[in-house]
Write a structure and sequence with these properties.
The protein has 226 residues and is of the alpha/beta class. It is built from eleven helices and six strands.
Amino acid sequence: MTTFVLIHGGGDVGWYWHLLEAELRSRGHDVVAPDLPCDDDSAGLIEYADAVVEAVGGRRDLVVVGQSYGGFTAPLVADRLPVDVLVLLAAMIPSPGETPEDWWSNTGYSQAAKEQAERDGGKTGSDDPFVSYYNGVPRALAEEALRRAREESSTAWRTPWPLDAWPDVPTKFVLCKDDHLFPPDFLRRLAAERLGITPDEIPGCHCVALSHPKELADRLVGYIAG
């Protein structure tokens, strides 16, 4: 049995993963999906990782999955626990010493999003969360997700990523082909530049655990089966 450690994105909650959790549990696996202390002004990236490590406890056979902003926390967890696979899901990829705040300009995100928005009629980077985050998610489910959202403190946002190098853990990147927040071409480039890997691609929006939980479960389970 594998334990999938699921790390949510900015201003979110562990509930985000509930459909994926059901899929993984139905296949005989364990799941840990804690709430990060993102609304706590005293908590930085280290405290985010502490919350995950505490939730994992003594479990072994770990696959750590970080979604979106969770990409800054997931490798910190993988550096501290016996992790078999680290998965970045439509995620930010940090560099040593880089703050989440600086990541956007360092990676050229704005230009990439602008170019993609010109191609897709303004969907990429839209101010409407039902377009930028939840496209393809049933409306009632997307509204529930928005109701559960929390404030994201600026403390972690301005915290330099503390590792000197990427953890020595097999790493996968899963790209969502219908993502209207992080353009697929942008993530393909970033994964190649920062990790030297080619992403695996699945259908779905930025919040793919709500739009395509089965397809995501298939991909994650495939990493341990392979």
